[in-house]
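retry 2 of 3: previous attempt timed out while embedding adenosine-5'-diphosphate. Reduced batch size to 1 and resubmitted. Inputs unchanged:
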Amino acid sequence: MLGESTKAWGFALARLAMLLVGGLLLGLFIDHVVAGLLLVLGLALSWQLFNLFRLDHWLRARSRRDPPDVGGVWGDVVTQVVRLHRRKRYHKQRLLDVFRELRHSTAAMPDGVVVLNSQSEITWFNRTAGRLLGLRRRADIGIRISNLIRDPEFGRYLQRAEHGDVLQLPGLQPGKDLMLSFQLVPYGSGQRLMLVRDVTRQVRLESMRKDFVANASHELRSPLTVITGYLETLEQDQDIDPLLQGPLSEMRRQSERMNAILRDLLELSKLDASTDEAESEPVDVPGLASLLCKDVRARAARPTIELQLESAARLLGNEGELHSAFSNLIDNAVKYTPPEGRIVVRWATNAEGEALFSVSDSGIGIPAEHLPRLTERFYRVDPGRSRATGGSGLGLSIVKHALEHHGARLGIESQEGEGSVFTCHFPSERVLPPRAQS
Ligand code: ADP
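retry 2 succeeded.
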């Protein structure tokens, strides 16, 4: 190829040299060398300009016209342009094919996909998204998504959503009882992919499960109260056969355990039912903590308990839920610490303005591999031991749920055989100054 082009250039130069010689001879013949040379060079330049004109003309309409039939260097240039053009067309076609395939596969996806530009305007959506959100192909392209989904919660989500955040909202279309989940995935320069899923069935099943647990626990309570009552009366009866005393007290102990489990299940159902943030009022945490420590001190055979109030701050929260969370943590510390051990209940604020309620104990501790699963329902490190201490395995689930309602999180540190520290981290927005003394 390079050889061919060198040949063409060599030929062009030879032709130029021949023309110059011709021009020189003509000049000598007419006795005016300069005029002879100028004439020949002028003709050569006109020829080149003519070829350039043909090339330009063809380039402007190359999709419709055949390339000009020129030889030499111009012919080479035309061949190069034709080759480049063909290559470009091939790549363009390939890209179009890939793009089309991609569109077809996303269009057929069971999940809805909406492409949003940096202004959150719809640039494309697939069939499922159109069906779930009631979008119309022509009318809704270019419209801001917040103008179509007007729920204020969605507006906040659109502005603040972080990677992986999911929002659930009832569907928009009248007459269709849908529950939709939204997830935003950032990509490209400021663009976002919004995934929309129909979660109506899952939400319905979840709510049925919650209702079932709440109803079953509620229904079981009354018969169990009767059984526990009779067992207590029988146990206190002096005339009862001494051989039955042992089984009777075991039966009463077990019925109390069942009562504790039902109580915790109902508590969890209550927390489950109120999925929104807890109804809030200023809660005097130092007062609540003192009360809980006083309750523990009233118990027999218990570890030493110390209260460290490093802050007098109050907390914006739900007193009932906070009482339940804190008392579960303190009860656990008492259950899993021997009487000669020590428990410290602490209320403080940190440099970030968070409020911390922590319960540390010098008890049996928890092996590291169990820590990630502790807040699961009915999860116990040592089921035998937990049952023996009257544990339902639901205490830490209750703590987790109650804290979630307060935008708080639970931190657990523990060393087997050394003790544990459970810390509730409350966000600074919920921390209130102490009540002014009158
Ligand atoms: P339980 O009613 O069995 O105590 P929880 O949900 O309150 O259930 O706790 C789950 C498990 O975590 C317990 O079974 C126990 O093994 C472990 N655990 C909780 N608190 C402590 C603690 N302070 N020290 C040691 N182990 C603990």
